[in-house]
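Lab notes, practical 5.
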Amino acid sequence: MIGILVAEHLPLVRRGLVASLEGETDMKVVAEVATGEEVLPAVLRHSPEVAVVDLALPGIDGPGVALRLREEAPRCGVLLLSHDPSPGQVRQAFAAHALGFMSLQVGPEQLAGGIRLVASGRRAVDSELAVAALRSAENPLTPRELDVLRLVARGAKSHEIAEALFLSVGTVRNHLSRIICKTQARNRLDAVRIAGHSGWL
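Output from the prediction step:
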């Protein structure tokens, strides 16, 4: 019997996941939580073999949870779920040592199969997502350009970015021009979208 923890902040989605997994003869949901902070205490208390975790949990997000479990409860494999999966999220998930990554749109049989793989210590990822992640370009942005873009993502204007990074406004504008060129974006907000989708931010 595979013990499972389900971490999902949307009650209806969480109940659906639990009901689906409880229908498997070799699985039992031993705990369910709604936030990232609740995962580790629940894992330590119930010792599940697999934690099924929403990537976008409030507080500590899915990759953060995976890293924490890797350090504190390494026997519990992590399978991350995403409402809107992207190649960048796949790389982010595996960089955090999650064993699995799937869309929340997968069927119950595919999810159950993924959990069985993770429980046995193997990777579980949708093949199309894996191929897209491998084909996705490497990050072309420098660390300083990423600093600038992160501030843009928070809504900062050029003069605010300059103050925060101790740069001139002209230098910030030069960085933004290079960022837009490298990401082939239409503007700075499009560059944020592209970089986020690719997992660079």
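Observations recorded by the TA: The chain has a mean pLDDT of 91. The CA atoms of residues 185 and 191 lie 5 Å apart.
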